[in-house]
Amino acid sequence: MKYTIAIPSYRRPDILKNQTLAVLDRLSVNRDNIVIFVANEEEYETYNTALNGEYQIVVGVRGISSQRKFYHNWFPIGERIVSIDDDMADLLELGDKKLIPTQYTIDDIVSMGYKYAELENAKMWGINPTMNHFFLKNHVSVGLRYICANFMGTFAGDWIFTDPNRRMTPTGEDHHSTLRGFTRYGSVVRLEFLCPKTKYFATGGIDACVTEDGAKRADRHAEELKWVQSRYPDISSIQIKAGGVVNLRLKPITFNKYPRP
After folding, report:
1. Residue 248: what are its φ and ψ, rounded to 5°?
2. Mean pLDDT for all residues in the chain
3. 84 phi and psi, to 5 degrees?
4. Residue 195 backbone zone (phi > 0: left; psi -120 to 50: alpha; other: beta)
5. What is the per-residue pLDDT for 38?
6. How far apart are the C-alpha atoms of 75 and 78, rounded to whole Å?
7. Is this prediction's pTM over 0.85?
8. What DSSP letter does each residue of 20-69 carry, written as one string?
9. Beta bridge partners of 145
10. Please, how many CA atoms are within 13 Å of residue 261, restricted to the half-sphere of its CB?
């Protein structure tokens, strides 16, 4: 199955090299299938030097939501795009009562994701975002499930990302994309037996863009999630987690569950 891995990255070339790219090497990804998107020419030079010129790097735009819109327009319409964050330390699967490094290749995972997406006419698929084996399951969910873009499959040119009227959210973008995908196409797909090893709200990346604009990440996150919830009040609700962290809870809607392949 033909696909391209798109990695948006901002001011983290060493993290990208030592984490996500190292994981992709371990999981047998052809480097020719990877495209890294950076914010400007200066970043291009920095990343190209750090990566020894071994990867394709494209100058896109600043800001994660704008960057995803950029590369969904940059690739040929209909091309399969697998978006991955630049700080994925590993890819895990549900083992016997614990999480273990996945034994699937990226080709295996991508083939599964698009197979079920195409069966269900869905335009988004992903993996479980939670690094806790109690929340992973040995099945594939179809319905409304949060799709985190730290590992997400989509199609170039699709309305979810390229709609010219889409709000460019600096944070909360994954919730917004999930809800757009569900309401537009009737479902998204999630491989519940896989999850990334990653650190949410890590320094840099989105956080750097927000703080450079003079805002606090937590404040912008809360603001954007409340805006998203106001657009989808029937299928989402605001939840206040420990420490006062604002989260957006999606209504649990499942139409189909396929057994783990």
Report:
1. -110, 120
2. 93
3. -135, 140
4. beta
5. 96
6. 8
7. yes
8. HHHHHHHTT--GGGEEEEESSHHHHHHHHHHTTT-SEEEE--SSHHHHHH
9. none
10. 15
How far, CA to CA in Å, does 139 sit from each of 22, 56, 251? Answer: 28, 35, 19
Phi, psi values for residue 241, rounded to 5°? -90, 180
Q: What is the DSSP annotation of the chain?
A: ---EEEEE-SS-HHHHHHTHHHHHHHTT--GGGEEEEESSHHHHHHHHHHTTT-SEEEE--SSHHHHHHHHHHHSPTT-EEEEE-TT--EEEEE-SSSEEE--S-HHHHHHHHHHHHHHTT-S-EEE-----GGG--SEEEEEE----TTEEEEETT-HHHH-TT----SSSHHHHHHHHHHHHHS-EEEETTEEEE--TT-SSTHHHHHHHTT--HHHHHHHHHHHHHHHSTTTEEEEE-GGG-EEEEEP-EEEEEEEP-
List the beta bridge partners of residue 57: 36
The token pair that represents 140 in the structure block: 């594939």
Token couple for 27:
């999981």
What pLDDT does residue 207 have? 60
Distance from C-alpha of 239 to C-alpha of 249, rounded to nearest angstrom? 6
Asked whether the beta carbons of 34 and 22 are under 8 A apart, the reply is no
pLDDT in tens, 79-135: 999 999 999 999 999 999 899 999 999 999 999 999 999 999 999 999 999 999 999
Task: Report residue 171: phi and psi, to 5°.
Answer: -160, 160
Name the residue with tokens 């091309």. 79
Name the CATH topology of 4-259.
Spore Coat Polysaccharide Biosynthesis Protein SpsA; Chain A (3.90.550)
Q: Is 213 exposed, middle or buried (0-12, 13-18, 19+ CB in 10 A)?
A: exposed
**Span 201-218, mean pLDDT?**
66
